[in-house]
Amino acid sequence: MKKTNFYLKDKKTDSETTIMLCKRIRGKMFKYSTGIKVNPNHWDNDEKKVLKARKNYSRINQVLNKIQVHFDEAVYNYLADDSMSFVDIKEILDEKLDIERNRKNSNETLAFEDIWCVKWIDSLKVVRSEGTWRKKGYVLNSLIDFTKDTKFKLEFENIDMTFAENYKRWALNVKDAKGRNRYTKDNSIHKNIEIIKGFCRWAYERGYTKSNAFEQIKGFDQKYFAPFALSSRDLTTLMDIDFSLVDLNEYNIRPCNHARVKEALEKTRDAFVFRCLCGIRHGDYYQLDPSKIINNKLQLVTEKTKSVIYLSLHPYASSIILKYDYKVPKLMNQNENENLKLMAQISGFNEIIEIVYMQGAELVREDKYRWELVTTHTARKTFITNCLRAGIPPHIVMEIVGIKKASTLQRYINISKADIEESMEKLNNYLGSKSA
């Protein structure tokens, strides 16, 4: 998600003017009045925050940070729920601002939330990617929802094993705007608990709290089953498709939209295959420009981990770069995922495979068409899996893709039955064929 912008309603005035929140969403401009006024002389237009010269500057910036966190969550829900409108987003923000005003009027301070939103996230903005610190904001919103539903008192000394168990129980049952389970997998919930615990440790180490109750939280590890990835044959299939020849009537696409959809499918395929051949993260792909591609080699510093990536481009990846004159195709993430599924369906990825994950104490097994599982993240999993299948040592793969922990690499590896059978055949040949 692109950065939210705060602007002054009238930056040329000599008196105080309203701080506006503005963002383009799906081609439409969303505008929202925060109700907070400052003099332009007290506004940092580059950093989008109030300067120290303004009385109560810290409190105002704190509220703006919280508005940004709540706005990000509202937009996320808006993009996932077709029934939501800009009016719904504004109502959500109005509710959050009312809470802030009531808190100010009663001199009440929720230290936990304030430290998370202002101190922690601000510190992360300096050293971590935007996607990373925004994720922390989503987790805080989840935590606030938990406190509302359960009357839990959000204080550091209450973040312990009992909290973690109750939070997981709540998360397994909480619904989204459409009445669906918000969290369907243990891993998503356990990741949230890990982030909450990480924040408490950060606050404890910096003296914001004397409570180390968070250290009681154990047993919420994330369990990873074989991820979905494409084979080299699948990639060849994608490369060979000419979307101009595809009959979209078979996929219930209205004839008036055929030309637009075919163009979008071609761009989606090119962007996806490029990442399958390079292994870079979705966010890093969107930062690509001619300065990062020199002599057919990709050179960049990753946004998330600040690792240096240096690799030679596959011939097909090079052809994509030339095709778009070094301006790689970029689409909205949600539209891209929809197009990827249609692309995979057209490509014949119609086999049914079993997906396994934990939901509470239950091991859930679901049958899915392969095309249903293709997302933007599949590209990176595909690159890593194919690197290992090609015999590239894991430590080299980690260096190529900018992964620092072996445990992280394991999440991306798809080991198929064919891989296991081939490995066992190699072992049997090595040990010899003598029988009892």
From TrEMBL:
Q: What GO terms are given for molecular function?
A: DNA binding
Q: Which organism is it from?
A: Parvicella tangerina
What is the name attached to this protein's record? Answer: Tyrosine recombinase XerC
Q: Which InterPro entries match?
A: Arm-DNA-bind_5, DNA_brk_join_enz, Integrase-like_cat_sf, Integrase_recombinase_N, SAM-like_dom
Q: Which UniProt keywords apply?
A: DNA recombination, DNA-binding
Instruction: Outline the extent of the Arm DNA-binding domain.
Output: 6-75
The residue ranges of the Phage integrase SAM-like domain are 121-216
Task: Name its GO BP terms in alphabetical order.
Answer: DNA integration; DNA recombination
User: Where do transmembrane segments lie in this chain?
Assistant: none
> So which domain of life are we looking at?
Bacteria
Q: Which Pfam families does this chain map to?
A: Arm-DNA-bind_5 (PF17293), Phage_int_SAM_5 (PF13102)
